[in-house]
Design goal:
Layout: H1 21-24, H2 41-56, E1 60-68, E2 72-82, E3 91-100, E4 105-115
Antiparallel strand pairs: 1-2, 2-3, 3-4
Length: about 120
């Protein structure tokens, strides 16, 4: 007959106040979390670009500004509306895009049309 194995120690619950296993674990860092329903700037930028592209049927060229608002986010998205050769004569448009707290597009508005080679003049 085979020799009996020694009894294994039982695991204790990690919920106990005097748990010895807690001493071996490194302390957990608490990372600050955003309130539910809010998003960060990078996520808001991607959401604005993606949703505007779906509505216009054109991919965004760039996002020139992004700022938080009381209701969510507002972004300025640049879109190529007419590609021309040379590239500096292509027509671009700037759209103001408003997102709610969850990142859903609430509104968009074309605010400006210009050629790529045009330089802003001070007013």
């Amino acid at each position: 007959m085979a020799a009996a194995e020694p009894a294994r120690p039982r695991r204790t619950s990690s919920h106990g106040a005097g748990d010895e296993g807690q001493d071996r674990k490194a302390p957990r860092r608490s990372t600050p979390r955003r309130p539910s329903g809010t998003m960060g700037a990078a996520t808001a930028m991607r959401a604005a670009a993606q949703q505007l592209a779906e509505l216009l049927g054109r991919p965004p060229d760039s996002i020139s500004s992004l700022k938080p608002t009381e209701d969510g986010w507002e972004a300025q998205v640049e879109v190529v509306e007419l590609e021309r050769i040379p590239d500096t004569t292509s027509v671009l448009a700037s759209y103001r895009v408003a997102l709610d707290e969850e990142g859903e597009l609430i509104s968009y508005e074309r605010t400006r049309r210009y050629t790529r080679g045009m330089i802003d003049r001070p007013t």
